[in-house]
Amino acid sequence: GLPPTDPLVECNSGTIGCNNIKSSSAVSITRVNISVTGNGVTEGSGGGTTNITFPVNLSAASKCPITLDYVVSHVANDPSKPVTNALDFSGGTSGTLTIPANQTTANITIPVAADKIVETNETFTITLSNASGDNVIAIPSAEGFITNDDQAVITSTKSDANEQGETDGRFTFRFPSGVTADKDVTIQYNLAGTAQGGGVDYTDALSGSVVIPAGNSSASVIIDVNDDEVVEGTESVILNVAGLLSDYSGLNGNQITLNNTAPQLNILDNDQTTLTITPSVTKDEGNTGTTSK
Distance of CA 96 to CAs 8, 68, 134, Å? Predict the structure, then answer.
């Protein structure tokens, strides 16, 4: 028989065990299989958003709309792969997708942050759940891939030192404006020039290293000047880079490089002195031999 049209008539509410559900061979319910496909995108830089889309497909069209939930998680199938974090995205990473009736596909769009962070390529997982209509999620998850395209050239600048007030000198290593890295960058260096280190004109050792910490844009080598009492004029300190160590440099890649021009700062002398000459001495010359004054 057909389903009831008036449950109050066909199923008296006073009859124990009665219900208003009837079976009918004329009604056919078809379930479909649902799958999601992975995708990747180049991140972009300079701000804004780069979208990555994940196609969700049905094994056959449904006569009813199908809804399902989705969520991004910061995991990868391969534990050795670097994964994303919340800052890699610029909008919602979960929600509900509707596949309209009589269609077999729809896309989930995930907004990726087009940042200025030098980082490795990253992976994340998108997972489907809660399909409506008792439809089957046959392939519930897929991986997303974000390819980093940020690069940076570190430049160096200098600030002169002055013995007056023991004003220290400074060499500063800096990323371009707005750029950082997600891991530390170490710069090894040697100091040269006419000034002497190790406690003579400045206290620094003649070799060392400085670290630009992850998430920071610059770091400085401080030249700690000595205010001596030696009249010596302006002296120079030259910084020569001995090495650049990071996960994105050298054998690890060329995403971070260094402008290798050796900067030179000056140490300005504040000492002065007056040279005095004692009065002349007069003595008779004599006629023979040598006369001493």
Answer: 37, 6, 16
Residue with tokens 């910084």: 239
Given a contact cutoff of 8 angstroms between Cβ atoms, the answer to whether 171 and 156 are in contact is: yes
Here the tokens at position 142 are 């897929």
CA distance 109 to 51: 6
- pTM, entire model: 0.73
Q: How far apart are CA 216 and CA 275, in angstroms?
A: 52
Minimal CA–CA distance to 70: which of 125, 13, 25? Answer: 125
| 3-class secondary-structure state, position 197 | coil
Q: How confident is the model at residue 12 (pLDDT cuts 50, 70, 90)?
A: low
Instruction: Tell me the C-alpha distance between 195 and 266, whole Å.
Output: 9
- Give the lowest-confidence range in 71-75, 184-188, 204-208: 204-208
- Residue 95 pairs in a beta bridge with 70
Question: Of 134, 132, 133, which is closest to residue 97 (Cα–Cα)?
Answer: 132
Q: How far apart are CA 168 and CA 159, in angstroms?
A: 8
Q: Mind listing the pLDDT tens digit for each residue in 99-158?
A: 999 999 999 999 999 999 999 999 999 999 999 998 999 999 999 999 999 999 999 999
Long-range contacts, stretch 102-108, CB < 8 angstroms, 24+ apart: 102/61, 102/62, 102/63, 103/58, 103/61, 104/57, 104/58, 104/60, 104/61, 105/55, 105/56, 105/57, 105/58, 106/55, 106/56, 107/53, 107/54, 107/55, 107/56, 108/36, 108/53, 108/54, 108/56, 108/70
